[in-house]
Write a structure and sequence with these properties.
heterodimer; A: 18 helices; globular; B: alpha/beta; 5-stranded parallel β-sheet
Chain lengths: 499, 131
């Protein structure tokens, strides 16, 4: 077992005092930002990207992984106690979880969410360790045409499959691809408007900070005063024997739903958590309890959510394809260390990758140990006045953007793209396609250039590999399905209008 | 002519409410209970939950004077209490005072202090019973 040895070595590296400290900071920070609605792991990671200039790669990535997993835990606390889904928590958790909390079972809801997340996170990470290296060895054999097709699929799936409005999704995607075009990487200046400051392109770190931090901060500032919500007080989370008996099967089923969906390029947690919720409702002994606080309805979706988070790391590590906003920013962290992401990652950076994987296990355990006793403390975070929070965020965002190149021009870009982020939130445009577009756009172009260079300009090379053809068929089938669905809804609407 | 109570769902607000209710009955004036929030945090402990407000309303029903409970999102709680007092021509404002360290006062300010200093009518500062 080569991977087992490598994993053990990874644990050895992750267990150094420094790295453990970074893991602790990561999970605490991650939970904190997960608890606060609006401030998610993606924004936090974007704000922390500048630390990649001074911290060792392994330590920074360990911390980032802790934040990624921690955000899930924190999010469930907010959904259950406040009925407001946190940044990265399934909507369905809030349905049953908040009902449980109202019925005086907040402690049990928090416990089943936390332990379920731990179980799902651990199993998910195990599956990740098993599958990602195998997948990477397969993907690394693919040529540029196949890789181009896969990138195209990722862009298409993130835009078309997730989110409610295709038009808004594609609008965001093309804005992102447009931002990715700026610069002179091809030798010709594109979209630089004759400015030498734009010649190197727009730094993706600045884009990420602007979209996630500035956009969100302005959005919150634009409707700051809202009636505070009634929070349900909670003590130490715990579960009775009966709760355990009702929870463990949903945990496992949720994991089974979550991981594959996370691993698909069209990842995301909405679908598996929803499926898990429906399944639990069907299988429950007392289905009438659903809608009034059924513990299965918290256990299943929370497990699915965390398992899909682990699943998301499969395409990220094995192919360099991010499918969630947080994964996209983790990819940026890799890139800012000059690490080549993609199928070669497991071969070129074995120590780093396996330390990261080992630290996922450690982070997951830390989360359970730290967060079960700390739940009441996390709930207190919600009392922080938003002006203090967002003033801090704006400060760190500006500092971070400025520290990229130490030029005022980046602050201007930060502001402009931040306003774009505000406008996107105002008009309901999803930010995920934009950030994925900015990151994958240049790589898409590079693969296309490489493929065409090898074939000396013959376009048919793009469908010369079987994998590429399969991927195009998948894209085509999905497109047909979406169009068919759209036409059917339109027809149904027309009928309604006629009747 | 009214008695205005600056209320929060804790022992300090309760103390203020009790004195205010007694005082309003004695004077035969309308009792206005103000429980406002700045609304800048996701959770404000000084804002009574809906259940608590319902219980409060039921409790106030038993008084023999007119009562009104207000919950608004305002830029400044002390300012809002003063404004309600001015508009309703208050003869008395009742506030509960809570212990504050100098640092706490510097950071968070004191609603009671601002009401006491800026009010144009007498202000009754109440402390909960020790014990």
């Amino acid at each position: 077992m080569g991977s087992l040895d490598l994993l053990m070595q990874g644990f050895e590296n992750a267990f150094t005092p420094t790295n453990l400290l970074y893991a602790c900071i990561g999970v605490l920070l991650g939970t904190a930002v997960g608890v606060l609605p609006g401030i998610g792991p993606a924004m936090t990671l974007a704000l922390l990207l500048p630390i990649t200039y001074s911290v060792e790669p392994a330590s920074a990535l360990i911390m980032f992984a802790g934040i990624y997993y921690g955000g899930m835990y924190g999010g469930s606390t907010t959904s259950i106690l406040l009925n407001t889904p946190g940044e990265s928590s399934p909507v369905v958790t809030a349905i049953e979880g908040h009902k449980m909390a109202k019925a005086g079972r907040a402690a049990q809801a928090l416990a089943t969410a936390a332990i379920g997340s731990f179980v799902a996170g651990t199993i998910g990470t195990l599956l990740l360790v098993l599958f990602a290296p195998k997948l990477a060895t397969e993907v690394v054999k693919l040529g540029a045409p196949s890789y181009f097709a896969l990138l195209l699929l990722a862009l298409f799936a993130v835009t078309a499959v997730l989110g409610s409005s295709r038009l808004r999704g594609f609008t965001a995607l093309f804005i992102g691809l447009g931002i990715g075009l700026v610069g002179t990487s091809t030798g010709q200046p594109r979209l630089t408007f004759g400015s030498p400051l734009l010649a190197d392109g727009i730094d993706i770190v600045v884009v990420a900070v602007a979209i996630f931090a500035i956009g969100e901060a302005l959005w919150v500032a634009s409707h700051l005063r809202r009636r505070p919500l009634d929070i349900i007080p909670v003590g130490q989370p715990w579960m009775s024997r009966d709760d355990w008996g009702r929870s463990w099967k949903p945990w496992l089923r949720g994991t089974a739903f979550g991981f594959p969906f996370g691993a698909l390029p069209a990842g995301g947690a909405e679908l598996p958590t929803f499926l898990s919720y429906i399944t639990e409702r069907k299988l429950a002994k007392n289905p009438e309890e659903f809608g009034h606080g059924a513990i299965e309805g918290v256990a299943g979706p929370e497990a699915a959510n965390n398992a899909s988070a682990a699943g998301t790391l499969v395409p990220l590590l094995a192919m360099g394809l991010p499918t969630t906003a947080t994964a996209a920013v983790i990819l940026l962290a890799f890139q800012s260390y000059g690490i080549e992401t993609g199928p070669g990652l497991f071969d070129s950076q074995p120590i780093l990758v396996w330390t990261l994987l080992a630290s996922l296990f450690i982070g997951n355990t830390l989360l359970l140990v730290l967060n079960l006793p700390l739940a009441p403390v996390w709930a207190k975070l919600l009392q922080i006045p938003r002006p203090y929070l967002y003033a801090g965020i704006l400060f760190f965002a500006s500092l971070g953007a400025y520290s990229v190149n130490f030029q005022w021009f980046d602050l201007l870009i930060l502001l402009v793209i931040g306003l774009l982020g505000l406008a996107m939130r105002r008009f309901g445009l999803p930010v995920l396609p934009l950030i994925i577009g900015v990151i994958l756009g240049p790589r898409l172009e590079a693969q296309l250039t490489e493929a065409l260079a090898i074939s000396s300009g013959d376009v048919s090379t793009l469908w010369s590999e079987p994998v590429a053809v399969i991927v195009y068929v998948i894209i085509g089938a999905t497109l047909l399905f979406i169009i068919g669905n759209g036409l059917r809804t339109m027809a149904a609407n027309n009928r309604k209008v006629d009747a | 002519m009214t008695v205005v109570v600056a209320y929060s769902p804790d022992i300090y607000g309760q103390a203020a409410l009790e004195y205010g209710a007694t005082e309003a009955s004695r004077r035969g004036e309308k009792l206005i209970v103000v429980n406002d929030t700045k609304g800048d945090a996701y959770v404000d402990k000084r804002l009574a939950a809906e259940k608590e407000i319902d219980a409060l309303r039921a409790e106030l029903e038993r008084l023999d004077v007119l009562t009104e409970v207000r919950q608004d999102v305002v830029p400044d709680v002390a300012e809002a209490v003063l404004q309600v007092s001015a508009e309703s021509d208050a003869t008395l404002i009742v506030v509960g005072v809570r212990p504050r360290t100098p640092v706490g006062k510097l950071l968070l300010g004191s609603v009671a202090q601002r009401i006491i200093l800026d009010a144009t009518c007498p202000v009754l500062a109440v402390k909960p019973d020790a014990g």
